[in-house]
Model the fold of this input.
Amino acid sequence: METSVLIVGGGIIGTAISRELSKYDAKVTLIEKEADIAFGGATRANTAIVHAGYDDKPGTLAAKSCPEGNFLWSRLASELNIPFKRIGSLLVALEDEDVRVLEELMKRGGINGVPDLEIIQGRELLQMEPNLNKEAVAGLYAPTAGIICPYEAAMALAENAKQNGVQVLLKTKATDIVVKDGEARAVQTNRGTIYTRYVVNAAGLFADEVAAMAGIGDFKITPRKGEYAVYDKDLGELVNHVLFPLPGPISKGIVVTPTVDGNIIAGPNAYDVEDKGDLTTTSSGLEEVLKGAYKLVPELSRVRDAVISSFAGLRPQPSTGDFIVKSYREPYGFINVAGIKSPGLTSAPAIAEMVANILQEEGVNLREKSDFEPFREPIAHPIRDVNPTKAEEFLARDRLYGHVVCRCEHVTEGEIIEAIRRDATTLDGVKYRTRAGMGRCQGGFCTPHVLKIIARELGVPVEEVTKRGGHSTILLYSAKRLLIGERDD
Amino acid sequence: MAAALAAKEGGVDSVLILERNENLGGILPQCIHTGFGLQYFKENLTGPEYISRFITKIHDLEIAYKLETMVLDLTPKKDIIAVNEYDGILRLKADAIILAMGCRERSRGALGIPGTRPAGIFTAGTAQRLMEVEGYVPGGRVLVLGSGDVGLIMARRFAMEGAEVKGVVEIMPYPGGLGRNLQCLRDFGIPLYLRHAATFIHGTDRVEAVTISRLDENGQPVDGEEEKIECDTVILSVGLIPENEISKKAGVELDPKTGGPLIDENMETSVEGIFACGNVVHVHDLVDHVTQEGEEAGINAAKKVSGELPRLKRRVHIMAEGNVRYVVPQVISGEKPLTLYARVKEPSFNVKIKIGRGISVRKRVVKPPELVTIDLTDERLRKMEKKGELTVTMST
Done:
């Protein structure tokens, strides 16, 4: 197989780069080792915030790309038809002496080019945020901050990239990089060798390992775990903005924020782990997250029962302390886009443009496509998005949009089939595209139905349907097999 | 269905059942074990046998029903928006509504059990559906969390399908299920780990093991008393939660102790004309009680429609305290004999249950898995204190 630009990694960065490059006349291939886009450990498990950009040290790549990415997300989200809400953020000082931190961050934000930052005092703060800790002294208000769904964004970026000619190969893992005469020539994968002129390494947690395949060892990625608690949508509008505590030494602290889908999440904590696949949640972690949440929104301590789930994500912490977006002389044709931890999601569109520029500097002739299609149709959720009159239009076209399968999130058979047609092959793939299984019963009612629909649409036995690829099959045996047949181990 | 039948027999012409599943019957069609109808029919039936008698009557009385129909909205004025594949969006108006949506199961996520997120974790009801309706055995080496009825029943089912049931794990020092369901542990040699909890789930793609830990008197894991049990499936039977999303939309007041609507002795909720019965009100042990509640709701809904059932004028609020977790109904008039149902927090013997200071009832044995019935006869009601609020307490 041959391509011009091979992007390794189908997370938010890899997909953003794919979509950016799909505007040009270059042959682009994206490879992702998991069964679906965003199935890795960072893109699908973070606080889902589009940051304003005052946190990062001026002069760093993070500081440069964050406000730029924040600005670019408006148009990108509207072209991709994904929800993005600029609800603004409040960084809250609970003690008088902490107000100077707010002032420092405001100054830093000014240097980084963050617009409209303001320090709000106690009373007005409580008007903006009635459930905020009454002891809040002041808050740094950043109106440009917002919330988005990170895996929905990555999947939409990949879809739009595909629409525009990018080849997306799932379950394809880079195993080695062929460097000849000082040039990166090919990437060997579990499914064969892909010859390419340029390699863009967006492999997230594994970026250092992929770089090592090309003989590059100037950075290391340490997985830094963050755990979260997810609350029932029932809680409603307890919180109006993204609420931050004072930032800590290694992370932005435990946040309380609404999600773009209507839940409230709390988290993350931050601690380094050894294993890049360690997405385990811990009891101490959950307690730490909840404690942090209660400090910002004391009301949450009275609704412990409203926690419907918890999860963990891993930040790809770079040893250099900043984003690594650069090309190399040796080997030529290799671009690292690594260590993109927070504010990586925010910076993604800006980083994608940076990579396009680097490729141009490296000699790739990026001619704009005349037929580039920027718009991507969303997966419609006519019942979930609760507008009975609009729903009637859909039902007239396809009555399967009237068969509600996921009760908690009101996801219909129509959209589940649509998700499968749009590359979902696993239970989690359907879940991330439709929200079936993300509600308060966490898939208790809908899982048997979704499994059958996936099996039917893909023409495979139900026993072969997996949770997220690999060996994650859900039904191990058909009836009586254990009693009369051999085990399918 | 019991409510629909009673309403129809009570004189209501137009009765419509809206059911979100593909069959009538709620959870019963997948409950293939026996134990249903011992009181109601004086027979020992399986779930499907019990429910088919009602389905037959629904057809006999020509009561209308719509399947795979999801109610999206319900207003206090009893306007309904629902949807299904065939009718599309349905906009309906009712003179009376009976809420009977049952329960959902508490999930791993809600419990916050630490560990990985592999395939192979199921709540008991989901596993039951997969086994009894779809015909699959989700796993071959199973650990069951929770010794309530559903967990024990599933332990037995897995064992009968040839799976190795590694154990049933229970956080309390006593099992939660009815005696006849505990029998399966002895029958199949399944270890029961009392005062234990799952503290970590292992496995990348599929469940590989679960670490369980002994608990101290405060319910906290004891260091050093862990055991890692290898398995490929975790079955959770750790609580049922009445499903009241629609009730909330209709402005129905809920009782935080039951998770269901506050109802009066007519099964009427805080919204006039909206009745509730069955598991949506509180978690029952016996379908016989559910049936009786449904009939009561149906009869009263019929009377409401014909104008013969005004709101209760005298409203005595029944509160639960101490070992009494909750009492249903929560509002009575004191003028009509009825049965109060109570659930206790801990087992006890030779208890005296007092309702206020006037009524006293003795019970020999009370335990959490079995609803306590308190018959408020005319005689007892005559002794009831004339107060707006009475508390149910228990002493030995």
Q: What stands out?
A: Residues 85-146+222-314 of chain A form a domain with the D-Amino Acid Oxidase; Chain A, domain 2 fold (CATH 3.30.9.10).
